[in-house]
Structures are given as structure tokens and as C-alpha cells.
Design goal:
The complex is a heterodimer.
Chain A lengths: L1 H9 L3 H24 L5 H10 L1 H35 L5 E4 L4 H8 L12 H8 L4 E6 L1 E6 L2 E6 L1 H8 L4 E2 L7 E4 L10 E2 L2 E2 L14 E6 L11 E4 H7 L28 E6 L2 H10 L6 E3 L1 H44 L1 H10 L3 H42 L9 H17 L1 H8 L3 H6 L1
Parallel strand pairs in A: 4-10, 6-9
Antiparallel strand pairs in A: 1-11, 1-12, 2-11, 3-4, 3-8, 5-9, 6-10, 7-9
Helix pairs in contact in A: 2-13, 3-12, 4-10, 4-12, 10-13, 10-14, 12-13, 12-14
Chain B lengths: L5 E9 L5 E10 L4 E5 L6 H9 L6 E6 L2 E2 L5 H11 E4 L11 H5 L8 H17 L15 H14 L4 E5 L7 H18 L2 E5 L3 H6 L2 E6 L2 E3 L2 H4 L1
Parallel strand pairs in B: 3-8, 3-9, 6-7, 7-8
Antiparallel strand pairs in B: 1-2, 1-4, 4-5, 9-10
Helix pairs in contact in B: 4-5, 5-6
Classes of the chains: A alpha+beta, B alpha/beta.
Chain lengths: 439, 229
């Protein structure tokens, strides 16, 4: 039976599969509503009840909305963060670095996080660059910044590859030219003097040395949007190192580099000719002198850990929502005591017990459904707001939004709590009519 | 419409503590009769009315309306009987303040079978007009005076075309003019439609207008011979 349902779902388009799952999640409340409300017209009394208890109803609804909004907002945020970090690492197929922490190397090379990692030397870099499967190999040169944004040295080919074509201007061709990331404040034609170090560790300018911005990258959704990319040669030069080329260098920046004059790089960014070639290189450069890592693989390991956290978060979100709802239902039980005289009146007039049951249940479910709807809107707002904050703080474009999984969660929550709402409704049936009627 | 006759025999109602609070050896009320029940407070008048309505289940005896013995029914069965056959008027109106006069008058339509709802609404509309509330039927019920509210409660009781009207101190919360007007309306509407009316009341205005008056004293019913003959 379960296999048949799974098979049926798998054969549908994705949106249909998701819609069916949502319908399935909502099925319990639809069935209960049909059974409970059958034959009755509760709306006039229900609306009267909502108006009479407007304050309490709003508080209960707000509690449910906040618990749902926070729950689905956080889950959607986690997914958006995962997608954002994966998207930011998309262009980085393979990284070759000196042995050490894979995560540190990835954070430094992909997300431009300041870190102290050992360098790979010229001959090793040359082996990587000259590998038959290497289509593009670029060094990274860190150490400078401008107004707290990293100034990263690399090659023109890498800029072309990362940007897939500049949004404006051209790629740098000399040591004093730079390409600005999409979210930097400088325009083509502006100049800036790099500072040694970054942030609190900034140690001042390199004399009168300045770069002129000759091009701007399009948005990549990664921390590179906030960076300035300059020739690796100039970064090495201003730090008093060899510039990667021999004495007969003609001044053209970029590969090839001379291993004898190569000062070292914390990471070589590699694009292989094929996926198979990338695996060949990864295998060959995992040695005692180098480590080769797929950022995607490292990320997926991190995401797997986050996946576990997500499951815990999902469970916690549901538990929190159910606890809030149980609290609300407990409040409703007390409220039904306040309403007991009215309910007794209906019984005295001849209303079936099931009518009072339906009225109380529909009151509780109205609060739950309205709360869930408002929670959905709140979750959507929170998701956008937090995404904006994370994007601003990390420069990783996080475009989180509520998806089907959140709708499924809310659907299941509504059904579960509609089931729980049967309890206060049932309690109204056990009230003593005469005593309640006399007040 | 024809009211229902009432036949009570060997009725005994106990309080929660098991104390006997009402006994009625025998009471026969012909269909279409307007019966007033009087007696001191705490004597058991309202208990008798609630037992007649099936709201209270007696520990012994029989209550038969027409050919329906309600003492043999369970709680749901008695409620169903009330829906079909009894209109109840309470001392304190007991209206839903957030609803309009019309909303209160037609409240029984909310749980009546679908085919009867139109009839209840039409009947309520007509009764609201007869009792002078037709033009203000859309107003919230808490904007009406005490007398008007009790008239809305009367319409609620009558709108279902119940053959029996039970009223618990219907004029107690009204001033004299309003009490007289309501007593007139209640008796008139019941008689016009041939309904059986039982009203518990201290109000001489209602006693004067009723066909018969019985007394309840210390949980016992004193019945004039003419009523049971």
C-alpha cells in the first residue's frame, strides 16, 4: 500500500507530487471537519464567539502564528543557507593546497575567510598547472585589503572564468589594474591604495602603490562580490616577494609562472578538462606534499551535518508548535468553562451534543488555521529578512523562501492540532446542563 | 398546529446529594392548555419545568407528551424531543448578545434539519413582526430593552413551531407594563396557535391569564381536581 502510494507520487510532476503530499497532510482535518460539521450551520454562532472573545482569540492566534513563523522561517533559512553556500562554491571545482585542514582551505579559497595556511611551492604549483587534465589553474595571493574588503591576487583567466564575462570594462592587464566585485563601491576608473592586512589587523598602505579599477564583475552570489581581484604578481611584488616571473618577463600578468620565481600560494584553483580529469587530478595531488579537495564534497559533508541539525530543528519546530497549541487548547478548555452557560443554553433549547462539540471544535480550529496562515506570512517575512542580514554579513547570497516542505509541515501541524482540538470539544459534552444553565 | 397533552405519573426528582426535591403523583394537562405553576422560591417549580423539558432526568415516574414518553429516552433522545416539540423561555432572556434579534430568534435553525431551516426563519420573521420587533430585527440584541429582549426570547421559543411552550419566570426581570405586555403576547400567541403552554411564575398577571394554576410547595404539587378529571 505504502509502496503503491510512493510509486504513484513518484510518477507525478514535482509540483503535483508536492500538492498531493500537502493534500494528504490536510486530509485528517478535512475528514474531521466533514464529520464534525455535517448537518450544522455553526458560522453565525462561531463568528459571535470570535467577536465575544476577540482579545483572547487574537492572543491565541498570535501565539500559534509566532511559533509557526519561527519554525518554518528557521527551516527555510537553513535550506537557503545551504543552497547559497553551494552556489558560491559552484565555480570552484578543485582546490590544491598544502596538507592541512580541508575546511580551512575551502573557507580561505572559496569564501575568502582570513586564515593562516601553508603555501604550496613553485615546482608543485607547476606540476598542477602543467597537468594534462588542467584546463585552468590559478594561484591565489592574499594579504591585502581595501576598506576591509579583501584584495585578492590571481590571474586574468581566473577572472574571466569566475565572472563568465565582466559586467563592465575589461580584465586587468598590468600590475596596477584591478577588477572590482559587483558589490564594491568603486567604479571603473577609480583608484585605490591596498592596505596590508585586513580588518583590525590592517597595517597601512604599501607606500604610494595604487590600483586602478578597469572592470567590474557581475554578481556571483559569493564573497568575491565584495572583493577586488588584482594580478597575483602585484600582490607578491608589494610584499617584497618574487613576482612569479623571471628577469626577462615582459610585464604581461598571468600564467605561465616560472617555478623558480614563484613565491608560493595558499591554494591553486583548478578547473579540469572533464569531470573524470578532475578526479584524476584529485587522486594525483593527494600526496604528502599537497592535498586536493573538491569544495563541493567538503560542503556536502558540512551540509550532511547541517542536515542532521535540520532534522532536529524540524522536530523541535513541530514540538514547539504542538506545545504552543496544547497551551492554546488548555486555554480553550478554560474558555469553554466561561462559555458553559451559553453552551448549556443551546442544549436546553434542544441543540444536539454534537452541535456544541462542532461549535467548540470549529472555534479552536479557526484559531489554529488563522494562526497557521499568519504564521506562514510571518515565516515568509522572517525568511526574507534573515536572508538579507546573512547576505549582508557573509556576502553569500542567501535567497531563502518558504517551499513545499514548509507547507507540508504546516499542513501536518494543522491536522495534528485539529485532532487535539477534539479534546476540549469533547469536554463540552460532559458538562452538567442544569448547573451551567443556572450559572 | 395542535399542542401536546401532558401526562405525569409518580414522578420523583432527586438533587445531586440524593435528596428528593420534587414528587408529582399525577398530573394531566390537556393539549392546548395554558397552565401556570406558582409557589414559593425553592419549592421546585423550575425543577418541574426542567423535568417536563427533559433537561433533568427524574429518578422515577413517567412524563408523557402526547404519545412520547420522554423519561424513557437518553440525553440525546430528550434533546431531540426538545428540538421537535418544545420551545423554552428563560427568566433572564439568555440571548447571544453578539447576534441580532433575528439571529437569536432563528438560532434553532443552526442545528435543525436543513429542510426545516427555511420554515424556522419564516416563522421567526412573522413572529418578530407580530411582537413589534420586525423593523429592528437586524439590530444587535444587546441594544434592546429588557422587555424587548424577552420578546426576542419568546420568538426564539415559538419559531420552531414547537407544540409546547415552557416558560421559566418569563416576566420576572421586567417592569410591570412590560411584564403585562409579555404575558398578553405569550398567552395570545400560544392560544392563537393552539400550543400547550406551561409557565412557572410568581406573576399574578400570568396566573390570571392562564387556563389553570397549580401550586408547588416543598417539592410537592397541589393540583386542582378539575385539571386531573
Amino acid at each position: 500500500m505504502t509502496d503503491a502510494i510512493a510509486d504513484l507520487l513518484a510518477r507525478q510532476p514535482l509540483w503535483m507530487e508536492n500538492a498531493l503530499i500537502l493534500l494528504f497532510a490536510l486530509l485528517p482535518i478535512l475528514i474531521i471537519a466533514t464529520l464534525v460539521l455535517r448537518g450544522f450551520a455553526v458560522w453565525p454562532l462561531l463568528s459571535a464567539l470570535l467577536r465575544r472573545q476577540a482579545g483572547v482569540s487574537m492572543v491565541f492566534t498570535a501565539l500559534i502564528a509566532v511559533s509557526i513563523g519561527l519554525g518554518v522561517g528557521l527551516i527555510a533559512q537553513e535550506r537557503g543557507l545551504r543552497q547559497g553556500t553551494a552556489r558560491a562554491a559552484d565555480k570552484f571545482q578543485l582546490i590544491v593546497a598544502a596538507p592541512g585542514s580541508e575546511i580551512t582551505a575551502m573557507l580561505a579559497a572559496v569564501y575568502l575567510q582570513p586564515s593562516s595556511i601553508p603555501l604550496i611551492e613553485g615546482p608543485t604549483y607547476a606540476q598542477v598547472a602543467n597537468h594534462p587534465n588542467a584546463e585552468l589553474v590559478a594561484p591565489l595571493a592574499f594579504g591585502d585589503s581595501y576598506e576591509n574588503a579583501p584584495v585578492v591576487g590571481s590571474t586574468p583567466d581566473f577572472v574571466e572564468y569566475l565572472s563568465e564575462g565582466l559586467a563592465e570594462g575589461r580584465v586587468f592587464a598590468t600590475e596596477t589594474e584591478a577588477v572590482a566585485g559587483a558589490r564594491t563601491p568603486l567604479s571603473v576608473g577609480d583608484s585605490f591604495a591596498p592596505q596590508h592586512g585586513r580588518g583590525d589587523a590592517s597595517e597601512g598602505a604599501h607606500g604610494d602603490f595604487e590600483y586602478q579599477v578597469v572592470g567590474r564583475m557581475p554578481m556571483t552570489g559569493s564573497p568575491w562580490d565584495r572583493a577586488y581581484i588584482v594580478p597575483a604578481e602585484s600582490v607578491w611584488s608589494v610584499h617584497g616577494l618574487a613576482n612569479g616571473h623571471g628577469p626577462d618577463w615582459d610585464g604581461s600578468v598571468g600564467a605561465p609562472f616560472d617555478p623558480r620565481y614563484f613565491p608560493g600560494t595558499p591554494a591553486a584553483l583548478v578547473k579540469a578538462d572533464t569531470l573524470g580529469g578532475a578526479y584524476v587530478m584529485q587522486a594525483q595531488f593527494n600526496t604528502d606534499r599537497t592535498m586536493a579537495l573538491f569544495p563541493g564534497t567538503v560542503l556536502s559533508r558540512l551540509h550532511a551535518l547541517m542536515g542532521d541539525i535540520r532534522q532536529v530543528m524540524s522536530i523541535l519546530a513541530v514540538v514547539t508548535q504542538v506545545l504552543v497549541t496544547v497551551g492554546v487548547l488548555a486555554g480553550l478548555m478554560m474558555l469553554t468553562r466561561l462559555l458553559s452557560r451559553r453552551l448549556a443554553l443551546l442544549r436546553a433549547l434542544g441543540a444536539p451534543q454534537r452541535f456544541n462539540f462542532a461549535l467548540t471544535w470549529s472555534y479552536a480550529v479557526t484559531l489554529i488555521v488563522v494562526g497557521a496562515g499568519l504564521g506562514l506570512a510571518l515565516g515568509s517575512f522572517l525568511t526574507r529578512f534573515i536572508s538579507g542580514v546573512i547576505t549582508a554579513r557573509t556576502d553569500i547570497l542567501v535567497a531563502a523562501s518558504l517551499g513545499w516542505s514548509e507547507l507540508h509541515l504546516i499542513g501536518a501541524f494543522v491536522s495534528l492540532t485539529a485532532l487535539l482540538a477534539l479534546i476540549p470539544a469533547w469536554l463540552t459534552m460532559t458538562r452538567p446542563v442544569v448547573r451551567d444553565l443556572r450559572g | 398546529m395542535t399542542g401536546l397533552s401532558l401526562s405525569i405519573s409518580d414522578l420523583e426528582v432527586q438533587g445531586q446529594d440524593g435528596r428528593r426535591i420534587l414528587t408529582v403523583p399525577r398530573l394531566e394537562v390537556p393539549a392546548g392548555t395554558a397552565l401556570a405553576v406558582r409557589g414559593p422560591s425553592g419549592a421546585g417549580k423550575s425543577t418541574l419545568l426542567y423535568a417536563m423539558a427533559g433537561i433533568i432526568a427524574p429518578v422515577g415516574g413517567r412524563i408523557v407528551w402526547g404519545d412520547s414518553e420522554i423519561t424513557g429516552l437518553d440525553d440525546n433522545g430528550r434533546a431531540a424531543f426538545r428540538r421537535r416539540s418544545i420551545g423554552f423561555i428563560f427568566q433572564e432572556h439568555l440571548l447571544f448578545e453578539e447576534l441580532s434579534a433575528r439571529g437569536n430568534a432563528t438560532i434553532t435553525a443552526l442545528y435543525a434539519p436543513r429542510r426545516q431551516r427555511r420554515g424556522i426563519r419564516d416563522s421567526a420573521e412573522g413572529l418578530l413582526g407580530r411582537l413589534g420587533l420586525g423593523s429592528s430585527a437586524a439590530r444587535r440584541s444587546d441594544t434592546f430593552s429588557g422587555g424587548e429582549r424577552q420578546r426576542i426570547a419568546v420568538v426564539r421559543a415559538l419559531a420552531g413551531s414547537a407544540p409546547v411552550i415552557l416558560a421559566d419566570e418569563p416576566t420576572a426581570s421586567l417592569d410591570r407594563p412590560n411584564a403585562d405586555a409579555l404575558a398578553d403576547d405569550l398567552i395570545r400567541v400560544a392560544r392563537d396557535d393552539g400550543r400547550t403552554l406551561v409557565t412557572v411564575s410568581h406573576d399574578p398577571a400570568l396566573h390570571d391569564r392562564a387556563d389553570h394554576v397549580i401550586d408547588v410547595v416543598d417539592g410537592g404539587v397541589q393540583i386542582p381536581e378539575v385539571l386531573n378529571d
